[in-house]
Amino acid sequence: MADSNRFVNPYNFISLPNKKAKAYLDEDKHYGVIHYSITTKTPLFIPNSSNDNAFGCKEADHKSFDFFSYTDLSNEKNVSGKYYEPVVPGSEMRGLVRNVYETLTDSCMGVLNDDYPVKRIGAKFKPGLLHIQEDGSLSLVEAISIRIGESAKHPKEMKKFEDGDKIYFSNHEASNGRGMIRKFSKNEGAYNTCGYVIKWGLGVRKEHFHAFKASNKVVKKNMEAAAVKNMMDAIVTSYIEQPSIKSNDEDAYKSYLSSFKKFIKGDKEAYFPVNYSVVGNDIVSIAPATFSKEVSSRSLSDYAGVFTPCEEELCPACDLFGKIGDNAKGSRIRFSDMYVEKLDSNKSYYVKDFVTIDNLSSPKISNVDFYLVKPKNADFWTYDYYIERGKIHLYDGSLRGRKYYWHHHPESISFNNVKRTKLNKTIRPIKEGITFNGELYFDGISKKQLNQLIYILNTGKDGLGLKLGMGKPLGLGSVTCSVSGVEERKIVFDQDKVKYDVSSYDYSNVTYESAGLSPSVKKEFEKIAGLKSVPKQYEICYPKTSDHDKGFEWFQNNHGGRRMPDTREKMRINRALPKILENDISLPQAVNGGNSYNNNKNFKKKNGENVWKF
Ligand SMILES: [Zn+2]
């Protein structure tokens, strides 16, 4: 019976082992081909990208794609009713097999990106000025923020100023720095005091501009300009990418960022206004606004520790599949395209002519609740620090592991009428039960490597599925793989002639263990690859409190409710993602359990800034 109070998150993580494995030293070499097939267990979609509006949809900026085929659709206005023979490109299979191979051989995480995780935080940021000193070093000094103009609206003359422009003004009145600026000018010497303009209104419903006047108190010296630039880039971009952003806010962010970039390049004044917050006396967070998001101090791949993509010494996956960039290495295996087992008409391969599927959001690495290992006894944690009983502890967050998607039961996948928008897509998926055949050619690999590849391409016999193509969180792309034959080509010297002797390779005894795959990840892999691992009563979906929740309400509740606390120390996370091997892998829709930040007196609802958004 369906349990509508709980759900299973679409993805989970296979734990990382203690150490990254090294490339194998075996010297035996084998040449030949593995013949194998894949069979769809849920609908599958891989786009034919030669036309991004293949179905001629009229909605603005809405994209629509046919399934991949060898047909060039660039001149087609609408392929509705016209069906082509589907093909699974070899590159897709290569990506899938590499991913699994990395996991099962304790290799590096080949697909990590260099994003900086950004997270909304309940601490108030203070005014500061970045300062490029004469020797070129970058520091941060405290600043006094002074409002420009008396009335609620900023003075018209301020239109001439951009963020970071130097402004001269007459002494403001209050000694506590609160006063306000009535008379000001761009011209040096017009008034005796100067500061730097910050055009408030960065997502905040404020009409004032402020001048930041430098104090002589240094917050941090010798900051790394590249890191500061990456942080600011990540944080401003995350604001700009919010679907709900208003166009004037977007303009304000863009112009702030472009002025900031000029400053960091040295093309502007020596000072630039920012807001900052210090975590545990060490980490300085920089942002454009006072209530803000916080960006992690390093990029995602830095938190993967020894599992960051290989550089000098190669892991088994980089050794076999190759590696680009410095110390590049070619690949010794090649995946052919996969051809469909023929049915009587092209139409019969597809679920429908076309369907519109829900918005496929990109991975939210800022969801620390799910992406990071929970430090023991922590009430709240981020990539750089955790809170335990009201105290901040600095540490390096550890990634939960390698991301895998649970398999959906095919009957739970339906294509309901989804309204077309610029965020979602219209596609033509293949239906379940369709088989494709193809080859993997190997060229000088060891018996161990060959057996490992055979194991992965033959996991269907153990009831395990792999995930291919688009729409994985929605349940698309579950396939089983099956090997139908392996041929080995040996070079034999017949007197003076070189001959190839082709014989069939016996793979009937290849098992997980005999192929030398990692013992530490076996159980987790077998569970998450299991086609029937998720109990049927649970819906597999992104966290939500109800069907009306578009995703952020659940996370908001998981952090204690709508109101943000006024300091980091009061932040908390109620529920972490269950581990793959836990008996109950589901989460409740209701997570707040009365834990809310209602005692926060400084909560400012009207500017809308201290409310969680993901
Ligand atoms: Zn590697």
Structure report:
The chain has 614 residues and is α+β, with helices and mostly antiparallel strands. It folds into 2 domains: 302 residues, no CATH class; 172 residues, no CATH class. The protein is 14% helix and 27% strand. The chain is built from 8 helices and 30 strands. The strands form 7 sheets. Strands 7, 8, 9, 10, 11, 12, 13, 14 and 15 form a 9-stranded mixed beta sheet that branches. Strands 3, 5, 17, 18, 25, 26, 27 and 28 form an 8-stranded antiparallel beta sheet that branches. α2 packs antiparallel against α3. It is elongated, with a radius of gyration of 29 Å. The C terminus is likely disordered. Bound molecules: zinc ion. Zinc ion binds next to α4.
Summarize the structure.
With 614 residues, the chain is an alpha+beta fold.
Summary keywords:
disordered C terminus; elongated; 14% helix; alpha+beta; eight-stranded antiparallel β-sheet; 2 domains; nine-stranded mixed β-sheet; 30 strands; binds zinc ion; 614 residues
Task: Describe the secondary-structure layout.
Blueprint: E1 6-8, E2 11-14, E3 30-40, E4 63-65, E5 87-88, H1 90-104, E6 118-124, E7 126-132, E8 138-148, E9 166-169, E10 180-181, E11 184-185, E12 193-198, E13 209-223, H2 225-240, H3 247-265, E14 271-279, E15 283-287, E16 291-295, H4 316-321, E17 333-335, E18 338-340, E19 355-357, H5 368-371, E20 380-381, E21 385-388, E22 391-394, E23 402-405, E24 425-427, E25 435-445, H6 447-457, E26 466-467, E27 478-494, E28 497-504, H7 522-529, E29 539-540, H8 552-558, E30 587-588
Helix pairs in contact: 2-3
